[in-house]
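Weekly structure sync, notes
Attendees: PL, DS, HV (note-taker this week)

Item 1: GMC family oxidoreductase
DS walked through the input record. Source organism listed as Massilia litorea. Sequence as pasted into the shared doc:
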Amino acid sequence: MPPALRSSYDAIVVGSGPGGAGTARELARRGMRVLVLEQGGAAPLTGTVGQMASMAAVPGKGAYIHRDASLLVAGITLGGSSAINFATAAPPPAAMFERHGIDLAPALAALRAELPLAPLPDRLVGPMAARMMSAARALSLDWHKLDKMIRPETCRSGCWRCVYGCPFGAKWTARDFIDEACRHGAQLSDRTRALRVLVENGRAAGVEIERDGKLSTVSAPVVVLAGGGLGSPRLLHASGLGPKYVPFFSDPVVAVMGTVDDIEGGAEVPMAGGLHLHEEGVALADLTLPQPMYAAFALQVGRVDRIFAHRRTLSMMVKIRDEIGGQVGPRWADKTLQESDRKKLAHGVGLAKAILREAGAHHIFKSWHFAAHPGGSVRIGEGVDADLQTSTPGLFVCDASVIPEPWGLPPTLTLLCLGKRLGGWLDRGVAS
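Item 1 (cont.): predicted structure, written out as tokens:
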């Protein structure tokens, strides 16, 4: 039996991804009674395709099909999508947040001092990533190692489990911060669905939840929604506190692949290196995937001839900063790429093909696009203020939905900064 919940807490955090985990840890460290609600499970990560599919490939729960043949994936598990991401850390774009009166530099400095946050050592850069890096540099492209949230002393060369959920403790996930929050007295309730935010006298007063098939309510004067770019706007709407449909960005990604004749690999840490063309809104990185995922991409576009070439195939990610548009609805997400988005993808795919050709690849093809980081659906300056508070006092949002402008970057480190900042703000007692 799961532990019983108290009737009231100082704060309730709905969601355990980076934004929620960062906030919960900060509040618990400061002595507040915190309840963390997580819709998914908290079973240890095993690094298997079966567990990964149960967390992120259940239609309508972790996986959503929307227009342009795109698959949008979100992790429904303790730690959210950080459990199944590629552990790549991009610093917050300072200018974007400064335009909204937000300085994330202090939070970033504090997190850099404690997190495993650095490029991989050479011994952990696989032969496929190294080949693509060398080819890109031969074309005078600014390809460099990317910061990874990985503990190199624990990470294993020739391993492919990052995206399945690292079972070795090498990859940092938001579970680390939830564990610390619980050590400081926070309570975690997994497999618990938040149904709506309770409001009394115009203020947030708690959450109605479904747990073990039973409905109940839990009270708190502070509620932080951290359900992600899809989950938080849906919960706001279900609570009568937000619109039914909201636009969003999705950071579309295409995988470009080509076969080489002199490498037998296919098992290495993805996104060891890459480049970011800020002005163009395009990012590229090596993207060596597990064989089942590679085969799915090949089948998706009818390349049956490439299914068994996984160990000799260089894969490259092309990701773009798409325009905010489309709609997140109560049960679905729908977004058609705009013409400017298609041009960015075409530019990135062209660069990727040139790099692969330089690397000696042949039989080059690309996947359909899928969506990596849904967000921007409860934006700073519109859905929340600079302190991440909604128009309902005591109700906050801290996840990718608050990102104020089109994105195109891995959001984990930015969300941790926002969570640390929000936790400190709430502790100072200035919520009104």
